[in-house]
Amino acid sequence: MQRTENVELTVLCLIHRNDNYLLQNRLKDDWKGLTLPGGHIEKNESIIDAVIREMKEETGLDIQNPRLCGIKQFPIENGRYIVFLFHTDEFLGEVTSSEEGEMIWVKKSDLPKMNTVNDLPPLLQVMEDDNLTEFQYVIENGKWNVIIK
Description:
It contains two helices and eleven strands. The protein has helices at about 45-60, 120-130, and strands at about 5-15, 20-25, 35, 40, 60-65, 65-75, 80-90, 90, 100-105, 135-140, 145-149. A hairpin with a 6-residue loop joins β2 and β3 (about 35). The chain is globular.
């Protein structure tokens, strides 16, 4: 049994204030709609440093005390894609947008009527529920399914 596989490492962060979420209106066709800001972990970069850097690059904010609140994963060719999920309500600075998309504050209660990426609702469920830890895409019978644990 092979124990080593190719892995792509990334981070996402839910920045929240009261009942509002800071979301990115992502422009790229591969994952279009309102979603959480995030990005890739650089080689030899700590996971915490990566989420802090990515939030600065994509939101303009200096986040503080990001808390790991879950993991998202899905298969890729010859391996898997792992996303470390964080949240924080501590930040400094002014919100700015990036080439990735416009950053907007969205009221949590307005999310169901907004154009979000398909997996945002179950992803937020994992991030907000202390009894859940993992969001996993699996292929069953040729179809993508979500498993939440």
